[in-house]
Amino acid sequence: MTSAELNALTTEVLWAAFGVSLAFGALVQRTGFCTMGAVSDAVALGDFTRLRQWALAAAVATLGFGVLATLGVLRAPQTLYASTRWLWLSGLVGGGLFGFGMVLSSGCVSKTLVRVGGGSLKSLVVLLVAGIAAFATLRGVTAVWRVDTVDRVGPDFGVNADVATLLAQGTGLSPASASLLGAVAVGGALLAFALASRESRRPINLLAGAGIGVLVLAMWWITGHLGHLAEHPQTLEEAWLATNSRRAEGLSFVSPTAFALDWVIFFSDASKRLTVGVVTVVGVIVGSAAMALARRSFRWDGFAGTPDLGHHLVGGVLLGVGGVTALGCSIGQGVTGLSTLTLTSFVAAAAMIAGAVLGVKYQEWRLERGTI
To answer: Which family does it belong to (predicted)?
Structure first.
């Protein structure tokens, strides 16, 4: 492969990722898919419809990733989530912080991007704060705290810490068979929950959940297959083009927001390259804005007052710190990470739900006191 062909393939990967994120932003803007709203509806109203949308997205992504793994296209040890260690404490603490933060900030990072596209200025503030906090947790002061505390805890299995790999090692099954079996077990359970009610089977809810799941799979295919080189012509090593981690990456929004801010701020630095994560952030905003304008729902939105501002600022910090510590957001771990059956993703997703439940209870307490 020549340098020109390599550059052309990299550009193709970036444009494909932009297209997927564009569709993601438009779909969330159109359907109202929201993980924070899903937990809030379940806790406050007893309505599990949007929670079933989230489960459907995770089911489709998990079953689809299982098929990709069975066909040898992409497996968990080749992804961003690959690790021989089960970082359960990082997932637990980070997920809990993220879950609580997404209630304070009126949504997770993906929903924040969508709201920015819909005209929300307060979501723009949250996005900037979350991006700065995320970058600090990747490479700054909170990164030191993270590495010296929660990241030190967790067993090392000696092989990749995902269900399929451990199942293959423990039973003697082939990696392909173990991947399919794990995907069917986990994805099937999620699918059964997702479709358990008549309301959840309405077209709009099926579109929201299944659509997000398909887009997650599309991003896996783009980075894990289209952008995959068995041998990079310059390094002679296996490579995944246009990714920050140099592994296959799926849809996720916390670290990519930090990388997007870094790319903008240091744009003239020749070492800063455009990556899948950066174009994903831009794509979601553009897709959301296009849908909002088409449906005439675009509205400028600001803070209601100082308490509202304060809670959103704190929420933004928790999103950034928690999302990086948990290795992903409610989409990045709750759907994308979960699809790989990585053990840390199960803990992080559960902790995000628990943190969000606490956040909803806290907001109800504020409402009872008349402080909202």
So the answer is: Belongs to the TsuA/YedE (TC 9.B.102) family.
